[in-house]
Each structure stands twice: as C-alpha cells, then as structure tokens.
Amino acid sequence: MSAQFPEGDGIFETLKTVNGEVFALGRHIARAQRSAEILGIPFPSEYEIRAAVEELLMPGRNIPDVGRLRMTFANSGEFGLLHENLHPWSSPARLMLLDRPVDETSPGSGLKMLPFSKNVACLALARAEGFDDGIRLNQRGEICESSVANLLLRIDGQWVTPDLSSGCLPGITRELSLEWLEVQERTISANELENADAIFLMSSLKELQPVVTLGDRVLEVDMHLAEEFAAHAAESFEP
C-alpha cells in the first residue's frame, strides 16, 4: 500500500498541522470515536489522544511547517500516531468519472476504515489514466465522493455536496463547509454532472482544491469559496 495510507484493520484519521498546531483535532477525535463505537473497537480517552499528540509535536522536534498527522485505531485496541511532511496541492485537479461504485448499503459505509485498499486502487486507476482522482457514484447512480475526498459542485448556480445517504464519508472539511459557507447537501444524480460548471475536492489535507477538468470538459476555477473557507479556518485551530 502507498506510504501515504496506513495498513492493518481498524479506523484512521488524517489531520493537517501547521507549525506543529493540529487543525480540528477535537472533531477528528469525535468522528473516530463514533466509528469505533459502531465497529466495537476499543478506543482511548480524548485526554490520552491529546497527550500523545502533544508529545509527538513538542517544540524542539523536527516539525515540518505543514504536516500530515495520521491517527490509527486498530481493531486490537492499539493506538498509533505518525507525523510526516505534507506537500500541499499547487495546481487544480483533473478528474475522471470512475466505474467503481460505492456500496452505500455496506455496514462500513461512511466510515474511514482500514484496510483502505479499495480507495487506493481507485486513486491509482485514475492516475494511470492521466488524472489526479475520479468521481465515484453509489449503486443507486448518485454522485458520492472521490477516491479520497468529498465533493463540492456548483450546479445551476448553487454549491451542493452529496448528502450522507449517498454513502460518502462525513468529512470534517465537508462538515465545516456546511457550517461556514452557502452550501446545500442533497442527493445529486449522475446526470446532473453535465450541469456542474465548477467543482472542489474537499478533505482535511486539501481543504478546498479546485477542479479544472472533468474528463475532457473544462470547468471554471472559482477560488472565492476556497478563500472564504481559509479565512474561517484561520480564526481557530479548534473550530
């Protein structure tokens, strides 16, 4: 598996750090705890997690300016942390439509579970075709998510994101976008893609990354929403 993704069985969280500060740690812990309860995985206390993160990111250590923090919670109850350098995106993404449907009826639907191999395989398929990622539908033919990110689409002048019934991950950036921005969540059918004139990928590491092409169709790169999100995010590391 790619070094960017942990191995094993359990759940994991991916967080962005800036100068040793972790963004939205509380929300990530809460999401992981909800997933652990659903799956019956032993889960450490929030105090234990925060103490371990604080020790890992102590001043004086070789901390990257911008980093990727992985938290893994194994089925065995083992808890692990890994902090690595992060190279943020530097250009808009190119997407394709992937023929790898998400099973929205699966017990693991909407959970950030390990192994993550199916998602990694989708990402590899898109990259082999010359794209950065791809849009996945669910089994009902609705827009769901990309291989590793939530989606935000401008359709008929309104920014929308698939609702959780699609099977998409309840992403933290998605959650904050619904709170901070003029974004609606709803069911989005596949045939609405042709009416989408702008798209963002949303994740904790990407925040809002614009999409420049979907297949061979050029999209508008409108950074207004991304700038608005960044302004809100700059106000606090614990939104």
Structure characteristics:
9-stranded mixed beta sheet; 24% helix; 2 domains; globular; 239 residues; D-amino Acid Aminotransferase, Chain A, domain 1; 14 strands; alpha+beta; 5 helices
What does this structure look like?
- With 239 residues, this protein is of the alpha+beta class.
- The protein has two domains: 76 residues, D-amino Acid Aminotransferase, Chain A, domain 1 (2-Layer Sandwich), CATH 3.30.470; 141 residues, D-amino Acid Aminotransferase, Chain A, domain 2 (Alpha-Beta Barrel), CATH 3.20.10.10.
- It is 24% helix and 34% strand.
- The protein contains five helices and 14 strands.
- The strands form two sheets. Strands 5, 7, 8, 9, 10, 11, 12, 13 and 14 form a nine-stranded mixed β-sheet that branches. Strands 1, 2, 3, 4 and 6 form a five-stranded antiparallel β-sheet that branches.
- Strand 3 and strand 4 form a beta hairpin.
- The longest helix is centred in the N-terminal third of the chain and has 15 residues.
